[in-house]
What does this fold into?
Amino acid sequence: MNAFRFDDALRAEITSHLGRFSLRRNPNPAGLKRAAVAVVVVEADRTGQAAFLLTKRTPRLRAHGGQWALPGGRVDPGETIEQTALRELHEELGVLASTDDILGTLDDYPTRSGYMIAPVVVWAPGVTVTPNPGEVAAAYRIECAELFRDGSPEIVAIEESDRPIIRLPLSVSTVNAPTAAVLFQFREVALAGRDTRVDHYEQPVFAWR
It folds into this structure.
C-alpha cells in the first residue's frame, strides 16, 4: 500500500490535485436535498502518516443509525457547502476548522435517500476529536494508505439495479456507498491525481431509504 506522510508536501499535493480536477457540480438536483460531508485529513495515531476521520453513527439515529459515515449533514438555508461541512464537523466531532483549512471539493454524489452530497476536503493538523454522543457512537482515524488495499474497491452487481454497488474494505469494517463512493474519489483524485468519477456507482439496497 502507498504511504502518505502527514506533512506540508502532502497538503500541497492534495491541493494541486483538487485544483486541477474538473469538478462536476449539479446546480439543479431534481428535488434532492443539498448536503455536504467533510473528508478530514488528519495525522494518524503514533505513525505520522496521513489519515481521514470516519464515524460510526449512533444507533439512536432514525435514518442512519449504526452506519459508517463522514461528518456531514443537510445544507441550511443561506449556507454554502463549505460552511455546512465545517459546521457539521464541529457539531459532530468537536473539530473547529476554518475556510483556510479547505483544500478543495469533489463531485456531487446523489443518494437513494434523497440527498445530493457535496464532499469538502479539509486539512486538520493537531486536532482533538470529541464525538457528539447524540450523533456519533465512535470516531476513527483511518490511514489513507488503507484506501489502496489490494482488491479495493469492491464492485458488485446487484439484481435490484443496473448499476453496480461500490464498497471499501477498511480495518474497522467494509464501508458502503455513499461513504465508499466519496472516499474512493478522494483516493483517486486527491491522493493519486486521477480524474475518476463515482456517481454511476450504486448504494446497497438497505440504504435506499
The first strand starts at residue 33 and ends at 43.
